[in-house]
Amino acid sequence: MGGPLPPRADNKLPQTGLERDSDEKSFGRDDEKGAFETTADGEEPNEEERRTLRHVSDNLNMSIFLIAFVELCERFTYYGVSGLFQNYIQRPYDGSEGRGALGLGHQSATALSTFFQFFCYVTPIFGAIVADQYLGKYLAILIFCGVYICGLLILTLTSIPAALENGAGLGGFATAVVIIGIGTGGIKSNVAPLIADQYKRRTMAVSTTKKGERVILDPNVTIQRIYMVFYLCINIGCLALLATPYMELYIGFWSAYLLGTCMFVIGVVVLLAGKKLYIVNPPQGSIITDAFKVIWIMMKNRNMDAPKPSVSGRSDLHWDDKFVDEVKRALVACQVFTFYPIYWVVYGQFSNNFISQAGQMAGHGIPNDLMQNFDPIAIIVFVPILDRLVYPLLRKLHINFPPINRITVGFWVASLAMVYAAILQHYIYSAGPCYEQPLCEASEVDGVAYGNNIHIAIQAPAYMLIGISEIFASVTGLEYAYTKAPPSMKSFVQSMYLLTNAFGSAIGLALVSVATDPKVLWMYAGLAVSSFIAGCLVWIIFHKYNRTEEEMNALS
Question: Which pLDDT belongs to residue 266?
Fold first, then answer.
């Protein structure tokens, strides 16, 4: 790779896509090989260079990290609060802190927590329309932050002991989760595209490292890194579950909810403080309405090119041929997302049934909802390994690992998580004193059921496998939704991706009837098979898009 390359044969003028800010004169830092020099930067690579030079990430500016921190605060709140819902709903309030609140039982707890997940991933459609068509992403995020805070305050106030003793718990919870669901949906559909909007390069450029190696600054690699950083921050926020289960246990649910509220307010302050640094694209008016009209014309004429003015000959259309091509590309992304609901059913297990499974085991002083932390810990460990070591090595060896392949691997790793959960459930049922009826009277000490004689720590690999699967499936989904969306519809296509999570939650609701002992073992086994088959179908049906990845991304 270090030897001389043939001279350029295309005689192209330097081309860098969108202009960079004056304070970004250098193209940043290649974290794999040292800093770039500005000499000869900016030339678009020819075909030989694209094939032979190493593709690397461009610099990430400060606004990217600020938005990532805002998302960290929001996810700290979301997981720190919702991670307690299973115990809050399932266990009764007996006057002691941390034992429970609503007392609705296992199935109702799973149903309500799954409904919350469902609602949180339906509302992004509303948030996307508000942003893309009316307010823009930044202002929409601020407004939905205000909604979110209102929901958090209601949840906190109705979870204090006096409120629970006077029957305010259930009504307050129902009201709060609806308001929080609207707030989080509006934020999620906009913050993921907003962070990628902070990076402005849209075409590849040749650069040179300090070691003299010529490399290609690749926007696709940079977007991939942005979402790896984004997801890393999300999961640092998830570590709220290191603190909130103990606060629940020793102080009360209200204290954990209050901590989440305070952290969220910090995120909003950072969002406001960095306003001058953000790149904010204005709303595009009737763009989403036009997109649906384009899709309708495609369906009516059974021809993907029918909406193009050059094909239809109509002069009254609000769009040009390029817009139709962009909508077609967005539809490709939506097709790829078809199988994601299966993945999200598997993912959803870690925040409901896995918590109940942990509660069936000997805790040895470890709260059953503390085990969730192994999911973000796995992500925090493996994201840097993949981003800094594995992916750069693959690119250096010219081994392609395109999005569809990464998504497929994510589905397969999720399948392994369910295999492990099913085997673990078998061992729980094989252990005394309650066997297939965990938490029976035989396991009680001073009126508290302590579960079967199998150590809670054995559950950790199930969470870790789900975390690793997220790096491949979830991160790549965010990346795919952004890169395949038209510039004017980033939030809307992101909301379509998030909607698949809602469908997964709906399937999870349908499975509530089998989330009981001993049927839950077979539910885990069925999800393992489903996730593996779904991963196979993703590759079989969509791997053809790997060949046109650069072409589709170039439409931006």
Answer: 97
Q: Which amino acid would we find at residue 509?
A: L
List the beta bridge partners of residue 29.
Answer: 35
Secondary structure string (H, E, C) spanning 157-217: HCCCHHHHHCCCHHHHHHHHHHHHHHHHHHHHHHHHHHHHHCCCCCCCEEEEECCCCEEEE
Residues 350 and 375 sit within 8 Å (Cβ to Cβ): yes
Question: May I ask the CATH class of domain 62-276+320-553?
Answer: mainly alpha
* Residues 307-326 pLDDT 10s: 988 888 887 787 888 888 88
- Give pLDDT tens digits for 468-481: 999 999 999 999 98
Q: What residue type is assigned to position 90 of the chain? A: Q
- Asked whether the beta carbons of 133 and 99 are under 8 A apart, the reply is no
Residues 6+ apart with CB under 8 A from 212: 2
285 torsion bin: left (phi>0), alpha (psi -120 to 50), beta (else): left
Retrieve residue 210's tokens.
Answer: 């300090």
What is d(CA 368, CA 245) in angstroms, rounded to the nearest whole number? 8
Q: Which 8-state DSSP code applies to residue 362?
A: E
The residues facing 406 across adjacent strands are none
Q: How far apart are the first and last CA of the chain?
A: 30
How many residues are there in the chain?
A: 556
Cα 291 to Cα 254, 320, 324, 499, 528, distances in angstroms: 45, 12, 8, 18, 37
Instruction: Please give the average per-residue pLDDT across 133-159, as a whole number.
Output: 95
Number of CB atoms found within 10 A of residue 162's CB: 10
Can you say whether the dihedral through the CA atoms of 245, 249, 254, 259 is positive or negative?
negative
Tokens linked to 347: 């993912």
Mean pLDDT of 176-201: 93
Distance CA 184, CA 153 (A): 14
**Euclidean distance between CA atoms 56 and 265, whole angstroms:** 36
* Three-point CA angle 412, 415, 419, nearest 5°: 140
